[in-house]
Amino acid sequence: MLMKVISKSLADTADIASTILKNLKSNKKGATILLLRGDLGSGKTTFAQALARELGVKNYVTSPTFVLMKGYKVNHPIFKKLIHIDAYRLNRGQDLLSLGWEEIASNPRNLIMLEWPERVTDIFTGAEQQINFKFIDENTREIQWPETATKQK
């Protein structure tokens, strides 16, 4: 079952990010990976900024389109590092290996947010959790995620 929420403001998106973070199912065998899927302007980076704020990141979070990856130390009971990756300029999962993917993806203390996951699907294991974003109008976005991604086990 999918959870579907409409965001009409930055505050709404922050509330959604907070809800997802509070209920996030962590991966004990490696990093918790959130695949942020949606067209340009659908709210992926805004969500990433809100999630980073929820984790206590003080830096201004921008999409790492040109540097591909940014990391932030966080103070959280489960996660110690937030890693934000923009795969838009990549052609396959193999391209992530040059960014140290194996190391960051194997650490259960890492939370990875990956924008444009459809560019690198060949590297995924199936443990990733997808969040879909849809542009509705200038102020409205639809955010959707599997209910199982936020169910505590």
How does this structure look, described?
This protein has 153 residues and is α/β, with parallel strands linked by helices. It has a single domain (2-148), classed as P-loop containing nucleotide triphosphate hydrolases (Rossmann fold, 3-Layer(aba) Sandwich). 23% of the residues lie in helices and 29% in strands. A 7-stranded mixed sheet has the order 1-7-6-2-5-4-3.
Summary?
With 153 residues, this protein is of the alpha/beta class.
Write the layout of secondary structure elements.
Blueprint: E1 2-7, H1 10-23, E2 32-37, H2 44-54, E3 69-73, E4 81-86, H3 94-97, H4 101-106, E5 110-115, E6 129-137, E7 140-146
Helix pairs in contact: 1-2
Radius of gyration from CA coordinates: 14 Å
Work out the count of structural domains: 1
* SSE ordering: EHEHEEHHEEE
The shape, in one word, is: globular
Query: Given this structure, which CATH class is correct?
Result: Alpha Beta
The proportion of residues in beta strands is: 25-35%
What is the straight-line distance between the termini? 16 Å
Q: How many beta-strand runs? A: 7
Structural class: alpha/beta
Q: What name is given to the CATH topology?
A: Rossmann fold
Helix fraction, binned, reads 10-25%
CATH homologous superfamily (4th level) name:
P-loop containing nucleotide triphosphate hydrolases
Biggest beta-sheet profile: 7 strands, mixed
Question: What spatial order of strands do you see in the largest sheet?
Answer: 1-7-6-2-5-4-3
Q: What is the CATH-assigned architecture?
A: 3-Layer(aba) Sandwich
Average pLDDT works out at: 88
Compute the number of helices.
4
| Contiguous runs where pLDDT drops below 50 for at least 5 residues | none
